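Researcher: Quick sanity check before group meeting.
Model: Go ahead. Protein one:
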Amino acid sequence: QNNLAQISLLLGADTARAQILARELVTKDPHNPVFLSTYAFALFSKGDNNNALLTMEKLTDEQRRVPEAAGYYGVILAETGDRIRAAEFLDLAQSGANLLPEEKALFDRARRSIAQR
């Protein structure tokens, strides 16, 4: 279910269902870092950047630094204006994660946005 939600959000396909799935997963297991990062991305995808950031900050620093979560945290940080930390987390994701092409594109857009500010 998490993979389905994440891919749907990345592709912009059936995002309403993906957001529901992400919320259900976090409700079932509120301490799972993978579920939390997917839920944060679901919030971000619908423009709720503040709650997306708050959700990512429920993770420990170590969990946020796991490459698979770091990129999403970097995207959210970039959007909320924390350029320095955004770059750090985007670097972590790109150096350590097996990224889907859609994730790579998302992270690259975030990197370009912080370079322009």
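Researcher: Fine. The other one?
Model: Protein two, sequence then structure:
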Amino acid sequence: MTRLFVYGTLKRGAKNNAHLEGQRFLGEAVTVPGYVLYGLFGYPGMVRAADVTAGVTGELWEIDDDCLRNLDRLEGLAEGLYTREAVQLEPPFASHRAQSYLYHRSLEGRPRLGSTWKL
């Protein structure tokens, strides 16, 4: 099982949440400072940003290996759209190291959204 932090279209109520069907929702979560969201093409991308003092808001899920493989395909890991990396979360999940998808392409011309992607 993998703990996965999601912050965009995989959150409950968002268009890709069905990909998490049958997985375990652990709760709402926030990353430690140092991450920020950018608006892409109808979805957000999280990147590291040393100048940011707030964490990104999202959800923590516990998912099985089949779900993780499917999400890796959905998020375009093979195409280099995103990378899956470990992120540190704030309490109450500070002791729960989680994986998350970080955007891996150019952000030129893309708007900086801050810490929360609104559904």
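Researcher: One line on it for the slide.
Model: The longest strand covers residues 24-30.
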